Amino acid sequence: MKHLLLKLEPLIWLLFGQGILLGTLLLTGWVLILGIAAPLGIVAPLDFEQAHALASSFIGRVVLAGVIVLPLWKGAHHMRHVSIDMGGAERDTVVAPLLYAVALFGSVAGVIAVIRI
Amino acid sequence: MSRPAHPHAMQPKRPGRTRTAPPQLPPQFPMSGRYRAYTLFDWTGLIYLLLGFMALEIVWAVGSGPAAWAAITARFENPVYIAFHILAFVSVIFVGVRFFRFFPKSQPPRIGPVKPPPQPVILAGLYAAWIGVTAVFAFILSGGLSG
Amino acid sequence: MADRPKKKFIVTRFDPETDEVPKTQEYEIPVEPDWKVLDALNFIKDEIDGTLSHRWSCRMAVCGSCGMMVDGEPKLTCKEALSQYGDTVEVSPLSNFPIIRDLVVDLDGFMDKFQAVKPWIIRAKERAVEEGPMRQSPEELEEFKQFSMCINCMLCYSACPVVANEPDFLGPAAIALGHRYNVDSRDEGADARNEVFRGEGTVFSCSFANECSEVCPKHVDPAAAVNQAKFNAVIDWAKGLVLPRGGKE
Questions:
Q1: Does ipTM surpass 0.85 in this model?
Q2: Which of B25, C115, C159, C187 makes the best surface tag, with the fewest CB within 10 Å?
Q3: Most C CBs within 10 Å, among A9, A12, A73, to test the C interface
């Protein structure tokens, strides 16, 4: 398992890096509007027709896939660091695959979600 | 007062001639001094995981029809969700500021023949992209493109 | 010596022949206004307690010998003015290292990691003397010069949370120095070093705490080196996917 993790590390790090970079770029407006401004009524929430029209465009699907997938890899990788920093070097061969499996599951579900719009 | 580090931290391959005392953690780790910002930065991973799965929920609802969309819109009006998103917004800003501070110096001096731009230019570019993407996304998500 | 102000020093002591675990010992000594922390330790050893063991040499922050924790932070004791500290100063051995005695830590673990990154110019074919010296432009030198300023003082290892928790991690100075050679235009050994960088001591263990760069007394910025090394390792990996190295797999 340790050897597999070492082999996959460059890919995981790339996903994690883009999770921070692109994920943060995308999430700022996303959280601001969908999480705060729309629920509080500061802006009008999107109705279903508007949301569906935006989401079903090609670029909409790509962006939405990014908003789902990228933060998951950033999150998983950082939670792995949290585990290690709490003295978890020995349990890393269990914790890391678990976290990355969660990110992978979410990523696959995310791709399915944008395809089925 | 001092807490042990990993028992094999910095251990040499061959044992020395005398018994050594085990390595100790830096006293300010993990939540004092500069380590606090670092530890919180790592913990934002939990926020990002939750945001990713909530984004999945939203997109799944869009693909499921008007009833699902109405249900999730209503759920996001729950004060607990709004409080979480305020925390999430602060976290995302914190992540962006810290990461952008470090990003320019992490670029290799050259990739093949290509040199990266000077570090201040990279930093300015990152913030310009952040503000630009946020503004565009916020405009679109507020219905700016729709009728 | 009359009327010099006094400071109290709480110093870690450990004698492997008599002590189960390290303990502290207090010394109250008169101090001079222009002293560094090292001057106080040398005074203690010379005038009060000759059994105190600590490393030091150049007294001017170039040899890297005198690294210790001062009030909980890794410092070069010859560099830090005593006047910036309060009336009580805690001095302990560098964090994250096994302790040999008192303020002296075992650095052999670093030597193992350092050797592993092959910190020397590697050439595919040695250059003949008749060919003359290798030439390098000032621009080429600038690409790695800052990383060559490392004095192996180990403050970065003391500050790094990954060194504290992952024994295999190569660590800031070793990676910075390996990277220094990878970026050196005279070097042709990046393949060999990238194997080490992606091995058990993997550069990707670095979580970019940046503490190494914060504590580095020579402004090497090892965090920059480690993270540049990650980028280069990814490029190396990507190249390996597209163009498998002949005969190496």
A1: yes
A2: C115
A3: A9
